[in-house]
Amino acid sequence: MLPTNLRIWPRAGEHMAEPTLPVIDFGAFSGGTDEVRQKTADQIDHACRESGFFYLANHGIATDIIADAFDAAAQFFALPQAEKNRIAIENSPCHRGWFALGGEALDHRAHPEGDYKEGIKIGQDLGAEPPACQSRSCVARPQSMARY
Question: What is the C-alpha separation between 85 and 96, in angstroms, rounded?
């Protein structure tokens, strides 16, 4: 059920433009020249800044690995909220962990109630005190969610 305060499109009678998803070919990146690699990096940067999303073609990741990742995500998000709360992002010193529905707002002015999604922020485990954490500006910490 959608929350009563969710605004899908605020202007009646107007139609939102059909979104486009940038497609980036990653096939030449691993064996490419510095110029090819930079061009690919620039395409990714542009897509992230302009669209927020992109489709990565020819990435070389096996379909069974992708399927396993989706299965693991489905299993995690099916857990009771109390279990997911054990790794809540609010308890993280470095912005890692799970956030509940409405727990993140990408545009606080337009959606002060938060976004209609739940999620988990993870990353490479860099140890207890990676160099970036020593300055207290870290976004890395030992993974408390390894059991998931």
Answer: 12
- Averaged pLDDT, groups of 10, the chain, 148 residues long: 52 68 93 94 94 93 96 96 93 86 84 87 70 51 52
Of 84, 101, 90, nearest to 147 (Cα)? 84
Largest CA distance in the chain: 55
d(CA 76, CA 98): 10
Per-residue DSSP letters for 74-128? HHHHTS-HHHHGGGBGGG-TTS-EEE-TTS--S-TTT-TT--S--EEE------S
Q: Is the pTM of this model over 0.90?
A: no
